[in-house]
Amino acid sequence: MMMLLLVVIVGLIVAAVLSLWPAPGAPAGREETPDEPGPASANRPSSLEGVIVEQLMRGEITRRQYLRAVERIAARDEHRHPLNIPE
């Protein structure tokens, strides 16, 4: 009984490894090369907050400038969409 269980477990492990192993001649995945630029919008942030974070990460703005920009965005959002408290 133990031998059968051991054979089944080893068989399952081998099947799992073989199912994840790439086939010969199959592409290993998309690798970007410096000569092959991706689409311009692929790495661009889709929101204003994302643009500001990207600027902060690149060192284009300081932490203080980042905080002020986020505060302005929050104030603008509050002005456009105020929180209505039901009575």
Automatic annotation (TrEMBL):
Q: Where is this region: Disordered?
A: 25-47
Which superkingdom heads the taxonomic lineage of this protein's source? Bacteria
Task: Give the protein name, as stated in the record.
Answer: SHOCT domain-containing protein
State the organism of origin.
Answer: Actinoplanes aureus
